[in-house]
Amino acid sequence: MAGIVVLGAGVMGVTTAYYLAKAGRAVTVVDRQPEAAAETSFANAGLIAPGHSNAWASPRAPMILLKSLWRDDTALRFHLRLDPAMWRWGLQFLANCTTERNRHNTLIKLGLARYSREKLIELRQTERIAYDEIAKGCIYLYRDPAHFETGQRAIGFLKAQGYPFETIDPAACVRLDPALAPARDKIAGAIFAPQDESGDCHAFVQSLARICAGLGVTFRYGTTVRGLESKGGRVEAVVTDRERIAADQVVLALGSYAPQIARSAGIKLPIYPVKGYSLTLPIKDKAAAPTLGGVDEGALVAFARMGDRLRLTATADFAGYDTSHKPENFATMLKVARDLFPAAAHYDQPRYWACLRPMTPDGPPILGGTRFDNLFLNTGSGHMGWTMACGSSRLVTDLMLGRKPDIPLQGMTLDRY
């Protein structure tokens, strides 16, 4: 019996393998890296944040992208390139930059993110996985009073869906997290999302991969997927640089590289790689380091404590499949960290990282079936892969096993394009 082949050993692929293995299925995971979570899941923001579910495509986004053509200090960086895929994606993105489409897409993301958080909590309790998780909420900081008012209006839609938020003043910020005391006078206010969390995605995936191996999952690391071999309405095998792997079912969970493999089966995925940068610092003074994850909304720099490390992430750079980086790419992150938590970390010992986030033009991921009755998708979650992973993988697993998913997949399947 050929079994199920999951392509990708990041957070999406490994959580999918886990749910399938728990259901008694024979699973093989294929990844080009030497271990699990070695690419996009390696050093992400660490936030599990339904409270940050707003779709990027919004009425404000076109102006931000336009400014980025001549400025390097914007959170979204768009560079003119001779890249037809980027231009096709960009036109679809602009079509979603209306208030109506933004609310529609945000609602879909929020529903999936909330469900996924529930599945993550359930999984960590069942398997007793520890990953430097902090389940005390996340704090979203504003430096400018006018921006703070805008932020409060922006969460109004999420709040109306029943997701809890608290609007707090600088004094309350410090009460929630005393590490913010040095920055109190620089904060106009904050939005606190008590159900949001943070944690080390890499540590989670590594632990879950070991659990999967104990459940009988086979991992074929150091193996590059070249394409899919199909006949009629089925995918018969996965072609790699080492061998041909026969498959009863295939899950495509290769993040930004999913479109390249899907193309070998004649499937077009509207996913574009958006580069994000992360910075990890060793903590110097535990009392001065944050105890909550969050975001400096002015600079759009996320921060999360992971045990004895401080993680910061920022920027969405439309740079194709380039993952190169240089120290100046991290200057804003270092400035924000020193500003908020001046004594927290060894700022002279940074570890730099850049990865590609698989973005869809509207925001929600692409989950579920394809025109091949045994090929399934679990990709396109963009910057919210850690937040959406357990929920996305459980939904895809349910579809594969013929079970009714817990939540509807409308707005998350490929046929919406």
UniProtKB/TrEMBL annotation:
<dbReference type="GO" id="GO:0055130">
    <property type="term" value="P:D-alanine catabolic process"/>
</dbReference>
<dbReference type="InterPro" id="IPR036188">
    <property type="entry name" value="FAD/NAD-bd_sf"/>
</dbReference>
<dbReference type="GO" id="GO:0008718">
    <property type="term" value="F:D-amino-acid dehydrogenase activity"/>
</dbReference>
<dbReference type="GO" id="GO:0005886">
    <property type="term" value="C:plasma membrane"/>
</dbReference>
<protein>
    <submittedName>
        <fullName>D-amino acid dehydrogenase</fullName>
    </submittedName>
</protein>
<feature type="domain" description="FAD dependent oxidoreductase">
    <location>
        <begin position="4"/>
        <end position="399"/>
    </location>
</feature>
<keyword id="KW-0560">Oxidoreductase</keyword>
<dbReference type="Pfam" id="PF01266">
    <property type="entry name" value="DAO"/>
</dbReference>
<comment type="similarity">
    <text>Belongs to the DadA oxidoreductase family.</text>
</comment>
<dbReference type="InterPro" id="IPR006076">
    <property type="entry name" value="FAD-dep_OxRdtase"/>
</dbReference>
<dbReference type="GO" id="GO:0005737">
    <property type="term" value="C:cytoplasm"/>
</dbReference>
